[in-house]
Design brief:
The protein is mainly alpha-helical. It is 53% helix and 11% strand. The chain has two domains: 48-127, Orthogonal Bundle (Arc Repressor Mutant, subunit A); 138-223, Winged helix-like DNA-binding domain superfamily/Winged helix DNA-binding domain (Arc Repressor Mutant, subunit A), CATH 1.10.10.
């Protein structure tokens, strides 16, 4: 191959690489623009109340008015006002529409502000109905995943759902819900920094284990090959 041919091939390869990079550079902004357009259409097609409801339904932790304002691209003051209207509507004080329960009747759920954020909860007056349903639907034995998660909560409480997932290296959302429904763990507070819900063991679990206090649990070290496996070096 002559020097001229080699130079021509090199220039051709360079031109091809430049074209590929240019195409990629053009494609990425186009994809971002399409996503932004879709988001803008969704926001325009739905009321602020609908957007807030959608976000609150999928949230695992309470969402602050600031976080909701950022997600909906609306002023915080406007979001706070919309949240208060939703609270009133769910409590039967406004809106509601005519249905079998009657216009303005309280919903079976309510929107509460806890730890500086908002979250959906079952209405307290319906707790007996929910408890009866859970007892009928819940199997008599816990799964291995539930037992492992329960052990993490027992020895590391108070602990957030994210910390539990980090220790077990799996998603624990459904397992935590199961343990809450069974009354084996309970919400004991919120992290002051992240506002994440913190969980601990319940009195019902202590009764099942036949102990009076969590300090009576057996040491974790003899149950593991390495006493620190799955936990950090702090004193348990």
């Amino acid at each position: 191959m002559t020097d001229t041919e080699s130079l021509t091939d090199t220039e051709s390869l360079t031109d091809t690489e430049s074209l590929t990079e240019t195409q990629q550079a053009e494609t990425e902004p186009a994809a971002e623009t399409a996503a932004e357009s879709e988001l803008a259409r969704a926001r325009a097609a739905h009321t602020l109340a609908q957007q807030l409801e959608a976000l609150l339904i999928v949230a695992d932790e309470p969402l602050s008015a600031v976080a909701l304002a950022t997600a909906t691209d609306r002023p915080v003051r406007e979001v706070r006002a919309a949240l208060q209207r939703l609270v009133a509507e769910y409590d039967g004080a406004a809106g509601g529409g005519a249905d079998a329960a009657g216009a303005g009747s309280p919903r079976g759920f309510e929107l509460r502000e806890v730890a500086g954020g908002y979250r959906f909860y079952v209405r307290e007056s319906l707790d007996p109905v929910v408890a009866d349903f859970v007892q009928q639907q819940t199997p008599s034995k816990l799964s291995q995943a539930a037992l492992e998660t329960l052990a993490v909560v027992a020895y590391r409480q108070p602990i957030s759902r994210g910390a539990i997932a980090s220790i077990r290296a799996v998603n624990v959302d459904s397992v935590v819900r199961t343990l809450l429904a069974r009354g084996l763990i309970t919400e004991v507070g919120h992290d002051p920094v992240t506002t994440a819900t913190l969980y601990g063991t319940s009195d019902a679990l202590l009764a099942h284990l036949g102990i009076g206090d969590i300090s009576e649990l057996p040491p974790i070290a003899p149950l593991l090959d390495d006493g620190s496996e799955g936990f950090d070096s702090e004193q348990l």
